[in-house]
Design brief:
The complex is a heterodimer of chains A (557) and B (131). With 557 residues, chain A is α/β, with parallel strands linked by helices. Among the domains of chain A are: 224 residues, Methylmalonyl-CoA mutase (TIM Barrel, Alpha-Beta Barrel), CATH 3.20.20; 64 residues. Chain A is built from 21 helices and 10 strands. In chain A, helix 6 packs parallel to helix 8. Chain B is α/β, with parallel strands linked by helices and 131 residues long. Chain B has a single domain, classed as Rossmann fold. Helices cover 44% and strands 21% of the residues of chain B. Chain B has a 5-stranded parallel beta sheet with strand order 2-1-3-4-5, with helices on both faces. Classes of the chains: A alpha/beta (557), B alpha/beta (131). At the A-B interface, helix 3 and helix 17 of A face helix 1, helix 3, strand 5 and helix 5 of B.
Chain lengths: 557, 131
């Protein structure tokens, strides 16, 4: 197929110059920046690293105290397959575990559901019951490792409950568990499924998790917002990522305050999942602006007192949309710059997207290369030695201010629409995302954005690189084996225990919004109820269909 | 061309990376075609049913998470069962070139990966539907 090569827009090398004079998010840039451009009150607006408003980072010594966590995710094949791969990543430098659930689990469907066909264990691991979680963490010390469980939808309490139940079974107190449950049902409403993630139920679930973990799991992060990364990758630009992320966080916080929770108990352990795009300075300015805006919002709007509540803590993933399948090795360069931007911006945890991302699911070689990039940035480049190394740059300080101004404008617009949930339900959010997505594509097609291998320095496809490490293939028989497991579980467990626990869950849901559902869900998981049974019970009690698409009904009727 | 081309644009299964599918749908509309946009969370049965009901000229699928290898064969089986064999199926998204041959063998008429311009998709659809 003839791709964009015919439109290659390179000029003769001897008079080539920079073509784009605005940032990747279309912020106009000057030729040079000078003293006075930012015109900041250092104490009030910037502050030393570790000092309010934390523009320069949340710790005084940043990575001298502790490097960021290297967190490459995994989830593929059966729980046993994924367990092996997680151990491999730990032995190759991963300092935290990050597990992806497969798509059926994410949407609250068991592996034997008709819509799960073809997707069991494909882009994550199936976590249908406590048995799957047990195999997934076989021989991994839950009281020593830090785990991030990626689910983010309204299903996340079931996943956390499975993790807690496995720990309990091993005699480990949940107060010793360290990690994060990704918990952002609004993101899942926008980026995954709207029908599976009703936003108002999402706000309740978010509060349940934060409240339960706050009371029982001091080392666990449940107050989490991943919208920043995901919506950015769907089409937002950098200021929109800031504005949407902070507004969604505010929506969750408001939900918690409404049920009587204390602001510091909610915000102290809150964390964000942000994107790292390819425009280094813009990304650094974005992280700096987000830290400042968060600190001010929490202090001025919410009256938070705890220092931890004012510190904006964030994980970073290199932006998937910045990577392309043409000349795939070039993605190593792209993700290196993005990883560098995250470090210069003071990230607490980094996932360097693998260079095969636009081609196939991550291979072993690609994962190892991602870890190596982080090692190189950490120990060879010198980027980690000094806190906020770009602080004081006329350009970056000014860009930080512009980022804050632009994001503030968008946040005011969302307020005018009645807040984020109303903006979502009116279709405005989706419209902003779609327009951004179309603008990005148009700018590539008309040459306003140059992307190497696409509309610049492109080569014929037949000359392109063969991927070192090959393409990841799905092990044959994964789905069949998993479906067998689920069927066997359903046939051999004590069905009375399952029914009793689900009946109690029904009663819990019926007690209203302020009743925390986690204890009921943990009990249901311990009784070997499946993810679909738990979600279906909750949905039907709330007057919805058993599964989001009305494909099958409760097996207990 | 006398009749407007009608395309069913869909994703298969639970993957929700809709960015590409939406771009293609709006490009085809801009080119004057009629588009039935099904979006995410479609089972192959429903895509085939819609194509028959709507008397579509072409089916466009967008795949991002490996479902091109698992759900596309099922789609072709169902098309065969339902007697829907005369309309082309094209596919776009994250598809390794190592898989292109296999997809063509299954009966896919065109594979469009990242970097394809919308103009190229429109041109391809116009050509194949006028045959």
């Amino acid at each position: 197929m003839e791709l964009m090569r015919k439109k290659d827009v390179a000029e003769p090398g001897y008079r080539e110059k920079v073509r784009r004079t605005k940032s990747w998010s279309a912020i106009d840039l000057k030729e040079a920046y000078f003293p006075g451009d930012a015109d900041d009150d250092y104490k009030k607006n910037i502050g030393d690293p570790g000092q309010y408003p934390f523009t320069r980072g949340i710790y005084p010594n940043m990575y001298r105290g502790k490097l960021w966590t290297r967190r490459q995710p995994w989830g593929f094949g059966t729980p046993e397959d994924t367990n092996k791969q997680m151990k491999y990543l730990i032995s190759h430098g991963n300092t935290g575990l990050m597990v992806f659930r497969d798509q059926p689990t994410m949407h609250g469907l068991d592996s034997d559901h008709p819509l799960a066909r073809g997707e069991v264990g494909v882009s994550g691991v199936p976590l249908v019951s406590i048995d799957d979680m047990e195999d997934l963490f076989d021989d991994i010390p839950l009281d020593e490792i830090s785990s991030t469980l990626l689910c983010a939808s309204v299903v996340s309490p079931v996943i956390l409950a499975q993790y807690i139940a496995v720990a309990k079974k091993r005699g480990i107190s949940m107060s010793k568990l360290r990690g994060t449950i990704s918990n952002d049902p609004i993101m899942s409403h926008v980026c995954y499924s709207d029908v599976a993630n009703p936003p108002r139920l999402g706000v309740k679930i978010w509060g349940d998790l934060v409240e339960y973990c706050g009371d029982n799991m001091p080392l666990w992060h449940a107050a989490y917002v991943s919208s920043c990364y995901n919506m950015r990758d769907y089409g937002l630009d950098a200021p929109e990522e800031v504005a949407f992320g902070l507004k969604i966080a505010a929506t969750f916080i408001d939900g918690c305050l409404k049920r009587g929770m204390d602001i510091d108990n909610v915000a102290r352990r809150m964390s964000f999942y942000c994107a790292a795009g390819i425009d280094i300075f813009e990304e650094v300015a974005k992280y700096r602006a987000m830290r400042r805006m968060w600190a001010k919002m929490l202090k001025e709007k919410y009256g938070a007192k705890d220092k931890g509540s004012l510190q904006f803590k964030f994980a970073v993933q290199c932006a998937g949309h910045s990577l392309i399948p043409q000349q795939p090795l070039n993605n190593i360069a792209r993700t290196s710059f993005e990883t560098l931007a995250a470090v210069l911006g003071g990230a607490q945890s980094i996932f360097t997207t693998t260079f095969v991302e636009p081609v196939c699911l991550p291979t072993k070689d690609a994962q190892r290369t991602s870890l190596a990039i982080q090692g190189i940035v950490a120990h060879e480049t010198g980027a980690a030695a000094v806190a906020d190394p770009l602080g004081g740059s006329y350009y970056v300080e000014q860009l930080t201010n512009v980022m804050e101004e632009k994001a503030t404008e968008i946040m005011e617009q969302i307020d005018k629409l009645g807040g984020f949930v109303d903006a979502l339900e009116s279709g405005w959010v989706q419209k902003v995302i779609d327009e951004g997505n179309q603008r990005y594509q148009k700018e590539i097609e008309n040459g306003d954005r140059l992307i190497v291998g696409l509309n610049y320095m492109s080569i014929p496809p037949e000359e392109d690189t063969v991927l070192p490490g090959g393409v990841l293939e799905i092990p044959p028989g994964t789905e069949e084996r998993q479906i067998e497991r689920v069927k066997k579980l359903k046939a051999t467990r004590n069905i009375d225990l399952v029914k009793d626990s689900l009946k109690e869950l029904t009663q819990g849901v019926a007690r209203g919004e302020n009743e925390n559902l986690l204890p009921y869900i943990i009990k249901a998981v311990e009784s070997k109820s499946t993810v679909e049974e738990i979600m279906g019970t909750m949905r039907t009690t709330l007057g919805m269909s058993w599964d989001p698409w009305g494909c099958r009904n409760s097996p207990f009727l | 061309m006398s009749k407007r081309i009608k395309a069913v644009i869909s994703k298969l299964g639970l993957d929700s990376h809709e960015r590409g599918a939406k771009l293609v749908a709006s490009a085809l509309k801009d080119a004057g075609m009629e588009v039935v946009y099904l979006g995410s969370f479609q089972i192959p049965e429903n895509v085939v049913k819609t194509a028959i009901q709507e008397d579509a000229d072409i089916i466009g699928l967008s795949c991002h998470s490996g479902e091109h290898l698992t759900l596309v064969p099922i789609l072709f089986e169902i098309m065969k069962e339902k007697g829907l064999r005369n309309i082309p199926v094209i596919i776009g998204g994250v598809i390794p070139k190592e898989n292109v041959e296999e997809l063509k063998r299954l009966g896919i008429s065109g594979v469009f990966t990242y970097g394809t311009t919308m103009e190229q998709v429109v041109e391809f659809v116009e050509n194949i539907c006028s045959k």
